Amino acid sequence: MYHFIVNIVGGSGKAKKTWDKVSSILDKNNIEYTLHKSEYAGHAKIIAKELSESFDECKLIVVGGDGTINEVLNGISDFSKIKFGVIPTGSGNDFSRGLKIPRHSYNIKKALNNILNSSDSKVMDLGLLRLDSGKKFVFGISSGIGMDAIVCKKTITSKLKVFLNKIHLGKLVYVILTVQTLFSMKTTNAKIKFDDEESIDVDKLIFFAAMNLKAEGGGVKMAPKSVYDDDKLCSCLAYGIPKWITFFCLPLLVLGLHSKLKGFVVKKFSKAEITLNDSFTVHTDGEYIEESNHVVFECIPSKLKLLMK
After folding, report:
1. Helix axes 66-75, 43-54, angle to 10 degrees
2. How many other CB atoms sit within 10 Å of the CB of residue 166?
3. Which residues pair with 83 in a beta bridge?
4. Cβ atoms of 263 and 241 closer than 8 Å
5. Residue 244 Cα distances to 7, 21, 190, 220, 228, angstroms
6. How far is residue 309's CA from residue 305's CA, in Å, rounded to a whole number?
7. What angle do CA 73, 74, 78 make, to 5 degrees?
8. Helix, strand or coil, per DSSP, at residue 23
9. What pLDDT, on the 0 to 100 scale, is given for residue 185?
């Protein structure tokens, strides 16, 4: 039995169209499944929790974008019971991009076959964000503070994103808002501690991204050497760079050619603790969390079993 969580109102109608094609294939091949419709923000998290508590083993597939995937991951109460698959319908699709899952509408059948014919042997690490409030959040793609998190917060209410989604150019909103945010945001100083190393002082922090996959923000290669099953996260840290110089660095960041530039730190780690002089915006998988001046990022090794070839 396959359990599909479908963000029926997501992707400007794309999720529903995708599900119609998926269900048609399943029915034609007499494959047993159950549909669970996610109808409002936070609903997918509730459904995932109920499924992971109701079955000893559950094949759980998300038909949706990165936001729905993040909800589901944070709803799962027992990962040992779950085998997880994705049929992407979002505008960014960084989760599926990182796992090389077919992402385009003409590849829906290929994405489904990738799940139905999975090897049952692939697993991936997950990341964990800890806050002083005691809150914890799981992430599959990335979590971060600063510029990239502010961009994520802005996209929540962005009318531009809605418009660009309709003409299939949704990921451009990240580029536009990144440039806008770069010149409007305030930087801050911070202390950063990687694993058991001594803390380092960082002046004029622009952002810190803890990457589980290579790219976020619709394909921006923040951590080109990140591997989803190596028991590590990878930092992408930018600090102390004049904003006008950072602007000209953005194309190199998009292409993943920034690691040797002054002011960038790309480094693998198991745990990173960051203490900031001022509160910064925090995100996980592109979803706004809150403002905080102290965060901890950790890798949870081999946590998620994947339905993939």
Report:
1. 40
2. 12
3. 59, 305
4. yes
5. 40, 47, 21, 19, 33
6. 12
7. 75
8. helix
9. 94
Beta strand extents in the chain (DSSP E only):
2-7, 33-38, 58-64, 82-88, 123-131, 136-139, 142-146, 188-194, 200-211, 233-239, 264-269, 271-284, 287-306
Q: How many CB atoms lie within 10 A of CB 225?
A: 15
Q: Could you give phi then psi for residue 274, rounded to 5 degrees?
A: -125, 125
Largest CA distance in the chain: 60
What is d(CA 295, CA 289) in angstroms, rounded to the nearest whole number?
12
First to last CA, the chain: 18
Q: Which two tokens stand for residue 27?
A: 């029915």
- Residues 61-91: b if buried by 16+ CB within 10 A, e if exposed: bbbbbbbbbbbbbbbbeebebbbbbbbbbbb
Measure the CA angle with vertex 291, ends 46 and 238; round to 5°. 110
Amino acid sitting at position 138? V
Blockwise average pLDDT, block size 10, the chain, 309 residues = 88 81 95 95 96 95 94 97 93 91 86 90 95 95 96 76 60 77 94 97 97 93 95 97 89 89 95 97 95 97 95
CA distance 95 to 193: 27
Q: How far apart are alpha carbons 160 and 158 in whole angstroms?
A: 5
d(CA 265, CA 119) in angstroms, rounded, equals 36
Q: CA 61, 98, 50 angle in degrees (round to 5)?
A: 25
Q: Are 147 and 207 in contact (CB under 8 A)?
A: yes
Q: What is the DSSP letter of 9?
A: T
* DSSP label of 144: E
